Amino acid sequence: SAVISQKPSRDICQRGTSLTIQCQVDSQVTMMFWYRQQPGQSLTLIATANQGSEATYESGFVIDKFPISRPNLTFSTLTVSNMSPEDSSIYLCSVAVQNYGYTFGSGTRLTVV
Amino acid sequence: AQSVAQPEDQVNVAEGNPLTVKCTYSVSGNPYLFWYVQYPNRGLQFLLKYITGDNLVKGSYGFEAEFNKSQTSFHLKKPSALVSDSALYFCAVREPPNTGFQKLVFGTGTRLLVSP
Lengths: 113, 116
Description:
- The complex is a heterodimer of chains A (113) and B (116).
- Chain A has 113 residues and is an all-beta fold.
- Chain A has no helices and eleven strands.
- Chain B is mainly β.
- Chain B has strands at residues 3-5, 10-14, 19-21, 24-26, 32-38, 44-50, 56-58, 64-68, 73-78, 87-94, 105-106, 110-115.
């Protein structure tokens, strides 16, 4: 099963700024997913990122707010742009692995002040 | 579109007693079902999954889950709870591969509290 290194693990940011979250996978994977977990809530899929193509965003999420890069089969970044306190959440990346499994990064706990 | 319901926000059980965390699903076609656990300040850890085959699936840390197609349920169980099992549990579902969709849809989560 794949191992994901997600950075940073946590950050406190000023409103109006941007934060880029990185996920590095120890093997090549086709699909990567980015989730948001708001305080006390479940996980909500932000977008699906395939290498070499534009990310596919879920309803309610837009590229201008959450730009995603997927330069190769082992790496992806999610940027949270022009942050407001409502963006305070845990952000997790995930990859699909063999036998229909999914592995998750350890998450980035973001606080916007 | 697929969906998952976890009807209990919290389940309380005494250590040593059996535990059940409930999950029902809705999906087109045969479901692919998952259970994950989240400990404080940590990511999601995989417990078990049902893809096909035996309706009783055994997973990590002594957990198991029973797939019931007629009731569209996939309840998580453990014969004897430990205090260390206290965490947030998520049920998730995805559509089968022939639909082309791979995204995982999560339930709202159930907090399990095991008392000594």
